[in-house]
Write a structure and sequence with these properties.
Layout lengths: L10 E5 L7 H5 L5 E5 L3 H4 L6 H6 L3 E4 L7 E2 L12 E3 L3 E2 L4 E2 L4 H4 L5 E4 L2 H12 L4 E4 L10 H4 L1 H9 L5 E7 L16 E6 L3 H7 E2 L4 H13 L3 E9 L6 H13 L7 E6 L4 H10 L9 H14 L5 E3 L4
Parallel strand pairs: 1-2, 1-3, 3-8, 5-9, 9-10, 10-11, 11-13, 13-14, 14-15
Antiparallel strand pairs: 4-5, 6-8, 7-12
Bound molecules: iron/sulfur cluster.
Length: about 325
């Protein structure tokens, strides 16, 4: 993770109607220029923005979310055995810069939006809980753990989830910033899910994310503290040789006590065609390798190495 001291925003845009909730965040960025706005879409929704240009130096936008707070999980995502699963977008955009990230296809802006009316998210979740248990993906349009030192959203959700056991929540991350939440009590209904890829692929496709060893270190810390941890090999980006993946899985099995992992999830690279088309029009040199035969070899290797763990997988490519 970029340490907080290295994260800086030249401009922070603040919706006037959320001003009273911004003190804790603004205190951390005393050098930033604060600009008050009526609606975050004035900045985030501007036409003809350059995602690639903004990504180099994004602004932060502090806003209030209106309308929908919960969305049904898309059919191409796993549901881990839950009949009902949802995602929520409390932050838009990310500190990391994975070249295959769907956010580049979804948004015109790389500016980062925090929705600070978290109690409205909680109200919506409580309403949904009345219809029975469900799975919630909390870190969907972002990497929430990487932002924890700035916004503290995981702390707030942790408090909420400790009283709402019917909501099982997954926080998916590539961050090594476990230290920001390590003092929290692990909850049965809160899963930390680390996305992992071989270092060779991280270097090529996951710009500014922590290397594998830092993620493994964070995983070990989380296991040690009793957190539920999921390993996620998704998206699997194929290679010319299976050896890279063999070495990768061996490294994981030697570094982590796999018996303490909750489960393993994997899937191929997949994306809404409209987003993919847009990404390829912006980044024409992007070459994601999705060789089906190699994908299946990698899946077989996962089964061989982690055979005693439930494998939630999308096998067909
Ligand atoms: S960590 Fe996830 S949300 Fe962030 S850039 Fe990478 S793929 Fe996108």
């Amino acid at each position: 993770m970029k340490a907080l001291k290295t994260v800086c925003f030249k401009h922070i845009y603040v919706e006037k109607n959320i001003k009273d909730k911004t003190k804790d965040i603004l205190e951390k960025f005393s050098d930033s220029e604060i600009i008050y706005i009526d609606n975050y879409l004035e900045i985030f929704g501007r036409k003809k923005q350059s995602f690639a240009f903004q990504k180099k130096n994004p602004s932060l936008i502090l806003a209030k979310k209106n309308g929908k707070f919960l969305y049904p999980n898309p059919p191409y995502c796993q549901n881990f055995g839950f009949e009902r699963s949802f995602y929520t977008s409390i932050i838009l955009n990310c500190l990391f810069d994975c070249s295959y990230c769907f956010l580049k296809g979804m948004y015109d802006s790389a500016n980062i939006v925090f929705f600070l009316n978290i109690e409205d998210f909680f109200l919506e979740l409580e309403k949904e809980e009345q219809n029975g248990n469900f799975l919630l993906f909390l870190s969907y349009d972002t990497d929430l753990l990487s932002f924890e030192n700035i916004c503290g959203f995981i702390h707030k959700f942790h408090n909420f989830l400790s009283k709402h056991k019917n909501i099982t929540t997954e926080i998916r991350t590539k961050s090594s910033n476990f230290s920001s939440i390590e003092h929290l009590k692990p909850l049965d209904n809160l899963i930390l899910a680390w996305s992992l890829l071989p270092d060779e692929i991280i270097k090529e496709f996951e710009n500014s994310t922590p290397p594998l060893k830092n993620r493994l270190f964070a995983i070990n810390k989380a296991i040690e503290k009793g957190w539920k941890v999921r390993l996620v090999f998704d998206p699997i980006i194929t290679t010319d040789s299976i050896k890279i993946y063999e070495k990768f899985f061996k490294k994981i099995s030697l570094s982590i006590d796999i018996s303490k992992i909750l489960d393993i999830s994997c899937g191929p690279f997949r994306m809404n065609q409209k987003y993919l088309k847009k990404i390829l029009s912006l980044f024409s040199d992007l070459k994601i390798r999705t060789d089906k035969e190699m994908y299946h070899k990698i899946i077989e290797q996962i089964k061989l190495t982690f055979s005693n763990k439930i494998l939630y997988s999308i096998y067909d490519t």
